[in-house]
Amino acid sequence: MKTGVFLPEWPGDPSALDRWCERVGTPAFLNWFVAWRLDGERGTIGREALEACARRGITPMVTWEPWDARWPWRWGAGAVTMEGIAAGQFDAEMRTVLAVAGAHRGEVLLRFAHEMNGDWYPWCLGRAVTPQAYGAAWRRVRDVAREVAPNVRMVWCPNVLFPWSAALDGCWPGDGAVDVLGLDGYAKAGEDGMVPTAKALFAGSVKAVRRFGPSLPLLICETAASPVAGRARFIGQLGKLAGVDGVGWFHADKEEDWRITTDAEARAWRRLPAERTPQ
Fold first, then answer.
1. Is the pLDDT of residue 74 over 60?
2. 101 Cβ partners below 8 Å, 6+ apart?
3. pTM > 0.85: yes or no
4. What pLDDT score does 41 carry?
5. Cα 45 to the chain's mean position, in Å?
6. For 128-157, how does the pLDDT look when each residue is reduced to its tens digit (9 = 90+)?
């Protein structure tokens, strides 16, 4: 099984990757986030970050978020919207950003507008974005990527299903538009202080996502578990998930301290690459 990671200090602090590799081994893929705009300025993938991945044999996973990363979210003139992307208003910006990925000498995973079946991002279908607008924007990004960065592989990554999540049928951008399937999901401790099993968290969603691309690779792009005694066990269970080709850990102290911190957790993560994915 492939393993990956998100490190909040990366790419600003290259030593963060050194520390991760020393503790648990070199990841197969490295995930970082790029806002379409940051405080009004165009976001950039970062040529140096791509080169650092190439030196270690790591596949970059760029999570490209179509918003202006400021608060409040920008919905007025000049705002990045799915409708605007679909209409070609941002084609020039896209070409500039994606040309950097196109110059990379290896594959780049582009995770565009992730967790679209939720309601916490402006591109989510739970925030009045229509399935038509989402699909059209996705296909526009794919078309520009194919034009300037044929080494880019498009990753479609919903959140694990939950009671009010948007129907995946409306989130799917269409056959031929996706190269890699993805899922995000976090194991939060319940009232009993235990985290759910990896199977309980992911199995139903893996089955639901798999039907859109039975032959496509599937990566759990983001996961982590609450900092409780069962976290090492949860990590070990990830390697037993049927139909999953790789898993990425969200190594950050955010809503909770999701970081791998104990020796038992690190050992469990080190063992994952040796796991054979059950079919």
1. no
2. 45, 50, 60, 62, 108, 110, 145, 149, 151, 152
3. yes
4. 72
5. 14
6. 899 999 999 999 999 999 999 999 999 999
pLDDT tens-place string over residues 105-123: 999 999 999 999 999 999 9
- Closest C-alpha among 43, 132, 145, 154 to residue 83: 132
Tell me the pairing of strands 29-38 and 41-42.
antiparallel
Residue 74 burial class via C-beta count within 10 angstroms: exposed 0-12, middle 13-18, buried 19 and up: middle
pLDDT number for residue 162:
96
Strand partners, 156: 181
79: its two tokens: 């705002």
CA 38 from centroid of its chain's CA atoms:
19
Beta-bridged to residue 42, according to DSSP, are: 37
Give residue for tokens 């079919």: 279
Identify the CA nearest to 265 among candidates 234, 236, 232, 225.
232
Question: Mutual orientation of helices 47-56 and 91-102 as an angle, nearest 10°?
Answer: 30
